[in-house]
Task: structure prediction
Amino acid sequence: MRRLSIFTSLVMGGLAVAACASEMDDASDSDMDVAAETSLACYIANGTMEEAQERPSPLHSTAVSVGGHDGLLCYGAPSARGRDIMGGLVVYGQPERIGANEPTTIHLTGPASIQGVEVGAGSYSIYAIPGAEEWAFFVNSNWQRWGIPIDESVRDSEVGTFTVAAEATEEFVETLQYRFEPMSENTMGDVVMEWENTRVKFHLHPAEGS
Result:
């Protein structure tokens, strides 16, 4: 799994975030303005980055790239620890954060399409309603919060949804993991989630017209 290795703790309005520095190559002035407003940061609702790493489900991050712009996917990484996960801890037919603690969040420094959902530069939480054969994912603008509950007030902030097939993994995956599989010279790629015996993935590609 590809991860950023440098984190810096920031305090904003009493909330701690772990910040990862990035540079944008060959960016236009407008791109730089957007990037200045978009922080590649893993949000932490409570405590510091060091404390988040000591949780039973530590904070992990995965770098992504779409349309030449950097991005960061942040998630709490729970482990199975002998529990039944899919259809058990992860309840089929019910909204799930597909991670632990804060919501799984994607930070983008440029416009992108998340499996067909067009979004601008910014930060978005990603939820899912899992199923045995397919998963419905929801891209949400409400990301600076604890990951649950996923109630109607949260669902009101959805900006788009998509459905992908569930696949079986070749081997048992003890700890939830996300990875980015780039393609086309890092202009696009797939975000792959694996846990227990299940794999789902969704595509990131440049926004239409970008």
In short: The helical segments are 29-36, 49-53, 152-155. The longest strand covers residues 188-206. DSSP finds three helices and 13 strands in the chain. Residues 188 and 205 are 4 Å apart (CA to CA).
